[in-house]
Sequence to fold (111 residues):
Amino acid sequence: MTAEQKDPGLQPERTLLSWVRTNMVVAAVAILLFKVSGQSESIILRLNAVLLLSCALLCWYYSKKRFSEFYRRVVVVSRVEVMIKKLFSLVIFVTAMLYGILSVMRFFTQG
Fold:
């Protein structure tokens, strides 16, 4: 094996599988938010579920595209990838905060 034919090992496959698991969980949470928003008639939760589901689908498409290249690039993690990961984390954080705030508001208005 020459220096140009460096074997990446199983790291790309493990990373792809972690992205798949994350996207599946986020899509499941989005579907649960749709159900909760239907019961509570909250448009904010419904919009948040749409945002979360679209983000999961975009990240699924991106990870499928990225890992089909199988690390041909010199830079393993580019700035665009870091930005996508930060955006994905921000969407998950906003979802958690919105649901928490709406739950607290519902608790105080009903109690």
